[in-house]
Structure formats: structure tokens, C-alpha cells
Amino acid sequence: MKRRRLSRHTLSNLEGMLFIAPWIIGFMMFLAFPLAYSLYMSFHNVRILPTGPQITYKGWGYYNEILFSGSALYDELIPFMQEALIMIPIILVFSFLIAILLNQKFHGRFFFRAVFFLPVIFSTGYVVTEFVNQGQGSLGFLERYHFDAYLQSYLGDNVWTRSMMEVLSRFVLILWYSGVQIIIFLAGRQTLASSLYESARIDGASPWAIFWKITLPAMVPFIMLNLIYTVVDMFTFPFNPIIKLIGVGNYGYNSALAWIYFSIIIVFLLLLLFVFRRITRNTYRA
Question: What is the residue range of the signal peptide feature (predicted)?
């Protein structure tokens, strides 16, 4: 019996390794060396000369300059972080509700599923940039009815109000970035057996109670998965000011800024996961 269990466990690990082997091979072939070399350049001053690149050791100089001697990073990062804290819940809630609706049985549901996923195919960085440059992607009634003035009168003129107005001005684009999340939520919803809902209806549970007691708790792993994906997707947003800032300095400076930005993303992601786990743990205890 022990040998069979070990063999099954080994086979399961081998199957998992086979599934992720293409990603590992692709990472080692195309990404591992550029990442390692960018980390190397972040500690060096790189000058491109006619005779070739001239590399001199600089140590932690670029890191100290970015973190402690300048304010360009913080001037761009703090407003963007505030916008991200607003955009991420909007995308998750919107995609979750749309997935619940698309899971219902109605005529043309496959067409509407394709409609919500098509922006994922077409919304590349260049397409989105041109889309906005042509004046699209904003909610026109906000300016027409001076919604910003009403919002400032109730919330005051502060950084959070301005961040909220910035998010609302790109609200249509934010919905474009919900396609993958909708697919993940839809796949997660379809893993729930219909017998669970039939048993709940027989016991007299209301649709609202079924949602809170069955659907939402079962979708927690998919919410966490979409949270991770949305955070990474938002931090590579086409209008991300930090990404534009990375292309300003020299190779060493840009590499240091990129690694600092990467570290901030990891810390931000770990913080969100910690808060999310605490909230879900307290909910289950209650």
C-alpha cells in the first residue's frame, strides 16, 4: 500500500511538472538571462560607445538616488497606487457579477460571452493608446453634467477624489480589462454542482441566501486568483506612469528603477493577499 501511494504521489508530481515544463523552458530560454543581466546592470553605470558598451561599477548608487535622493518615483507612484486601490475592486466586482449572469441559461449567452472576451484579444497596449488618443474610452456624461464638481463638493478636493475622477474618466477601459477575470469566475462557477443549489432550494433557501452561503464561499479561491491577476495586470497598465518613467534614464538607472518597481509590486501583492486572507478567515469564523 505504501509503495502504491508513493507511486501515485510521484506520478501526480510528474504530471504537474509536465504541465508547467513549457513555461519553465520558455522562461529559461527567453527571460532568465535578460532578468539576471538587468539586475547586474542596475549596479553599474552603462555607457554605449562606438567601440561598445562601457560598464563601470556603481554599487547601490542608483538605488539610493531613486529611493532617497529624488521624488520622481513617489510623485508618480503614490497617485497610481491610489487609482489601483479603486480600480481593482471595481474590476473584481464587475467581472464576478457578469460571470454570474453569463452562467444563466438564456438565448445568445455564447454570443455575450464572446463579446466580453473580445477586448482581451484586441486591447493591446498600442490599440488602447490609440483608442484613448482618439478621445474614446471616457464617460462623456461626467463632463456634460459636471460630475467632478458634485463629487468634490461632497468628498472635498483631495487626492482620493482626484484619483476617483481619474478612474471614472477611464471607466470603459477598465471594463475592457475584465475579460480574463470573467472567464476565470465563469469557469469557477461551473465547477459547483447543480445538486447543491437544488438541495438548497428544497430546504427553502432564498436566492440571496444561496449566493452568500454557497456561491460566494465556493468562489473564494477564484477571487484570490483574479486578485493576483488583476494586480499584475493593473501594474502593467498602458498608462502606468512608472513604466513611462523607466524609459527616461540610462540603462543602469532604468534597471534599478525596474527592480524597485518589481519589489513594490510584490510587496503590494503580498499585502493585498494578507488582508484578503484575514477578511475571509474572519468571515468564515462568523
Answer: none
- What does the alpha-carbon distance between residue 109 and residue 119 come to, in Å, rounded to a whole number? 17
pLDDT of residue 147: 66
pLDDT of 259 > 90? The answer is: yes
Gap between the Cα atoms of 228 and 281, Å rounded: 18
pLDDT band at 2 (very low <50, low <70, confident <90, very high): very low
Burial class (CB in 10 A: 0-12, 13-18, 19+), 224: middle
Q: Which helix (H) or strand (E) holds 54?
A: strand 52-57
What is the maximum span of the chain, computed from C-alpha positions, in angstroms? 80
Picking from 25-39, 91-105, 174-188, which range would have the lowest pLDDT averaged per residue? 174-188
Q: Torsion-angle region of residue 136: left (phi > 0), alpha (psi -120 to 50) or beta?
A: beta
Rg value, the chain, Cα: 24
Residue whose cell numbers read 440571496: 208
Could you tell me the pTM of the whole model? 0.75
Cell numbers standing for residue 62? 542608483
Q: Which three cell numbers stand for residue 93?
A: 466586482
DSSP letter at 274?
A: H
pLDDT at residue 1 tops 50: no
Beta bridge partners, 47, equal: 54
The domain spans of the chain are 1-38, 70-285
Which of 133, 132, 99 has the alpha carbon at shortest distance from 116? 99
Give the CATH fold of the 70-285 domain.
Answer: MetI-like fold (1.10.3720)
Pick from 92, 118, 115, 123: which is nearest to 239 by CA?
123
